[in-house]
Amino acid sequence: IKMKSMGIDPAAVPKEGTYRVDDEGGEEKKEDSSRPVKRMRTEKKDSADATDGFNAEADLNNAADLEKDTKSIPLLPRDAKVLLLDIEGCTTAISFVKNVLFPFVLSNIDLYLAKRTSQELGPILKSLQEDIEKLEDGHDAKEESKKVTPVVPDCTPNDDLMRDMIKSFVKAMMKFDVKATGLKSLQGKMWKSGYASGELKGHIYSDFVPMLNWCKSNGVSVNIYSSGSIGAQKLLFKHTTDGDLTSFFNSHFDTTTGSKKEHKSYEKIAEDLGVKPGEIVFASDAEAELVAARKAGIGFPVMSVRPGNAPLTNVGKEFPIIYSLLQLCGSD
Prior knowledge:
6-stranded parallel β-sheet; 10 strands; alpha/beta; 10 helices
C-alpha cells in the first residue's frame, strides 16, 4: 500500500539490487545484479605457504634473535648463580645517601664526638689523617683540609683539638665525595646510632625484595660490594622500610678489599667467593666500576639505571642496561 502511495508498482522486477524469485518448482533462485556482491574467500593456500599457530608464525625460526652478545642482559640462574650488587643507584636511591645519610652525619657529628673519650678520638683522627694522606697532591679535599684544619702543636693534641681536626677532615672529604675507609668507618658508627633510635630507615627500591626472593628460591648467592663500610651496609639492610633483609646476603665487601675502580678488587672478591670471575654478575651504576670489573674478567657486568643516577656516557652504554633488578631474574 505504501509503495502504491509512492507510485511504485510492487509487481515490477527491480532494475538493480539483490532480490529473489521462486521458479515454478518453488525453489529459491538468486538473480544476478548489475552490482557485484562480495563473497567470502574459502579457497586454501598452497601447503608451502601455510603455517600453523597464531599470527602464522609458529613455524618460523628466530634463533638469530636469541643469540647473546656483550649487551645481552644475563639471567639468574641460567647464566650465573653468583650476584654481586652495588648499593647506591642499584638497590638504594642515591638521593637517600646524599639527602638523608650524609646530612645526618654532618648535623650530628658534634654530639657524637662530644661523647667520645680520648682513647676513642685518637684512632678516629689517625684513620682520617691516613685517608687525607692517601689522596693525590692537589686533590680538592686535601687542599680544603689544609685550609680548615687547626694547627697541631708538637705535643699530643687535647680532646677538643682532636674533635676540631676530626670535624675538619670529615667536612672536607664529604664536601668532595671522597670514598675513604676511615671516613666510611666513622660514618657507619654514626649511622648505627641513628638506625637504633629509629631516626633512620634504609631505603630500598620496590623491586629489591622480589628479586631477593627469586634468588633465594633459585639458589643464587647474593653479595654486596659498596664503598660504604660493611657495618654500614648491614645496618642499612637490617633497618629497611621493608624490614630486616640481612638473611638474604651471603657476603659483604667494602673498600678494605680494595678500590671499586681497581680490577684487582674484583679478582680478590671472586677468590673469596670461591668462584671464577666469569661466573659472577655484577650490577652497578658506576661506569668506572664496570670497566674495572670487565678488566678483571667478571662475566656479566651490568649497568643499573635508576632515577637520579649520573647520565650515561658512551662507556656506560657498552654494557647491558637494566632499569629494574627483576630484569636479571629468569631461567629461560
